[in-house]
Design brief:
Elements (H helix, E strand, L loop, with lengths): L5 E4 L21 E13 L4 E12 L5 E9 L2 E8 L7 E8 L2 E17 L4 E11 L20 E4 L7 E2 L4 H5 L7 E9 L3 E2 L4 E8 L2 E7 L8 E5 L2 E5 L2 E5 L4 H20 L1
Parallel strand pairs: 1-17, 2-11
Antiparallel strand pairs: 2-3, 3-8, 4-7, 4-10, 5-8, 6-7, 9-15, 11-14, 12-15, 13-14, 16-17
């Protein structure tokens, strides 16, 4: 029996809530992402990132959809929207506040589809974007202090590090369907920084002092967090542990305990 891949990050807790797709009442926001692909390059001198995010989006509502809204970090900008064939799509964007949470400001992007997306149908599109990653502590989410920093960075939806499907209303966004999704993430950072992920590592390639990490999901996931730091990485029997160098003793203990626990589950 093959051991399942287990990943432990001693640097951060990676919370997520599993939510399934639900039937939407007429008028509610019913679009959901079922696949995400990221290709990002981080500039630590500027504190910025550039790249693109591609999506597979399904219409779970009961009505045709002609526009797809996204929210992006307020100091970022979308420079192009493309369909699955690489053709340009019309879009608008503006920095705006949520109507029911005015302290929450985002770059609100609306992409116009060439053809209506009927109920149950799926569309693929890509957004090229870039800018500065900043926190959202002013909203009351004191843990969202995200920034591109060599000591520690994290790419996640909490800080809208990539365009996230959504309206300018928290109520509508919370009621939207949230099916699990598959992902591929290609993240380039300066060496010796390491990108951590619970996904399968497809490639780790270093060129001219910069390393690209490519991960893919092994199964659909409810969320994606990508911590980045100068991690020490150890692995054994399908268990992979990322830790800061000063936490090496604790990391060794976690690896030992995790491998023993998985071995026990396999025997059972």
């Amino acid at each position: 029996m093959t051991s399942p891949l287990a990943v432990f990050c001693l640097c951060a807790v990676l919370p997520g809530t599993l939510n399934g797709a639900t039937t939407q009442a007429p008028g509610d926001f019913g679009l959901a992402m079922t696949r995400l692909e990221l290709s990002l390059d981080l500039d630590y001198d500027e504190g910025s990132l550039t790249g693109w995010a591609a999506y597979q989006i399904t219409n779970f509502s009961e009505s045709d959809v002609t526009e797809v809204p996204f929210n992006l970090g307020r100091l970022m900008t979308v420079v192009a929207a493309l369909d699955a064939q690489g053709d340009s799509l019309a879009f608008t964007q503006e920095v705006a506040a949520f109507t029911d949470s005015p302290r929450r400001q985002v770059d609100h992007v609306v992409v116009t589809l060439p053809h209506p997306l009927t109920p149950g149908a799926t569309v693929r599109l890509r957004l090229d974007y870039g800018g500065y990653l900043v926190g959202y502590t002013e909203t009351g989410s004191l843990y969202i202090q995200d920034k591109v920093d060599k000591a520690f960075s994290i790419l996640r939806e909490d800080a809208v590090a990539w365009p996230s499907l959504g309206t300018l209303t928290r109520r509508a966004n919370r009621g939207a369907p949230r099916p699990d999704f598959t992902f591929t993430a290609s993240i380039t950072v300066p060496t010796p920084l390491t990108v951590a992920s619970g996904g399968r590592l497809l490639k780790e390639q270093t060129t001219d002092g910069r390393t690209t990490f490519v991960y893919e999901s092994t199964a659909p996931v409810p969320f994606l967090n990508l911590p980045i730091a100068d991690y020490r990485v150890i692995q054994q029997s399908g268990v992979r542990v990322y830790s800061f160098p000063q936490d090496s003793i604790g990391a060794d203990q976690v690896l030992t305990g995790a491998t023993r626990g998985l071995a026990l589950l396999e025997r059972w």
